[in-house]
Amino acid sequence: VAMSSLEQRLSRIEEKLKQENNDARRRIDLNIDMSPQRSRPRPTLQLPLTNDGGSRSSSSESSPQHHPSRPRNMLNLPTPQYVLQKSLENAEIDQKLQEIMKQTGYLKIDGQRYPAEVSDLISEGEIGSGTCGQVFKIRFKKTGHVIAVKQMRRTGNKDENKRILMDLDVVLKSHDCPYIIQCYGAIVTNTDVFIAMELMGTCAEKLKKRIQGPMPERILGKMTVAIVKALLYLKEKHGVIHRDVKPSNILLDDKGQIKLCDFGISGRLVDSKAKTRSAGCAAYMAPERIDPPDPSKPDYDIRADVWSLGISLVELATGQFPYKNCKTDFEVLTKVLQEDPPVLPHGMDFSNDFQSFVKDCLTKDHRKRPKYNKLLEHNFIRHYEVLEVDVAGWFQAVMDCTESPRSSQCYSHQHQLTSVFSR
């Protein structure tokens, strides 16, 4: 039986994902290669380590275990080949690189500007990976500050370079938003770009794995306020759509801060619409991005990120990914298109406002899905904008309890997690 056009498209997407995943494996190299020579095997130079095991932290934070039943590959959908558009993009990439090169070589921390080079970065271990690079916990030798540094390899691939520059461009411009990760500066070498950022505690994805269950509604309320305001800021101030909203890109720390990160696949909005379909994570992708009315004109707007936020909230609120039984991206994409949207289950004592907010985010018809300003008027956000919630205390309780689950202190924290911080 001949496959439908939609099935053929989804099959092509799945093949593209497999190829993209293989390409990513070939690109990943935890060592820092400083050799400009390409004609022979290239020697590598690692970041200086504080101890022999510094680059291989044994904690779950440094080597996250991916959920076996949830596709996590980055999704690069075919983009229409407009030669003029491509040449303009390449010129923009080259121009941005030149601008960034003028700013490279110093870090601005706590209002002070310090000259910086790679040898000033002392690694204390890898803490994660982003769209196009690894993230390390770093001690800045000149001042003793402990920061996060994302290392991204410069390649001849224009798409990779575009991701690097997009990530750097967004974080450098977003210094005035408290809900976006702060950037201290960048160091650019012949082979790599190092982006220095504030060090956060961990991401919502890893917190969910630590808890092994639902996150409290109060915490998710504060998280929602922060992420919607971050996304609105990106749109209003910089004309940018994030395109990769998911729990691993939502960061929290022991101060109670909640911030959005990883802007490598963000896109420019033209007349409030994104004009390319490239990039994203299949598991959180909105229906209109998977199957647009006109594939040759991929117009979608910030409401695609609203859908991704809704999927993330369902996952964190229930402790389970809503399409958890899917083994491939093909299955996820098919269910997103063919089934009713996920909802918060009624048996888990969620507030009516929370259920209503998630339902609004996961409105399948994107034309009826609310945009950010409308979401900010929702009772759920208005309630948590003003409610005092001890996010810092909850965060510390989770970290303490999962670090030493058998201690008496843990049982106290566990009681705190299930009572004080419940809705």
Q: What does this protein look like?
A:
This protein is an alpha+beta fold and 423 residues long. It contains 13 helices and 13 strands. 40% of the residues lie in helices and 14% in strands. The strands form three sheets. Strands 2-1-6-7-5-4-3 form a seven-stranded antiparallel sheet, covered by helices on one side. A three-stranded antiparallel sheet has the order 8-10-11. A hairpin with a 4-residue loop joins β3 and β4 (134-140). α1 packs across α8 (329-338) and α2 crosses α3. The radius of gyration is 21 Å and the shape is globular. The termini are far apart. The relative contact order is 0.11. The model is unreliable at 24-68, 76-84, 268-278 and 405-423 (pLDDT under 50).
Strand content: 5-15%
- Count of DSSP-assigned helices: 13
Query: Averaging pLDDT over every residue, what do you get?
Result: 76
The N- and C-terminal alpha carbons lie at a distance of: 52 Å
C-alpha Rg (nearest Å): 21 Å
Shape field:
globular
**What fraction, in percent, of the residue positions are helical?**
25-40%
H/E topology pattern: HHEEEEEHEEEHHEEEEEHHHHHHHH
Low-confidence stretches: 24-68, 76-84, 268-278, 405-423
* Biggest sheet strand line-up: 2-1-6-7-5-4-3
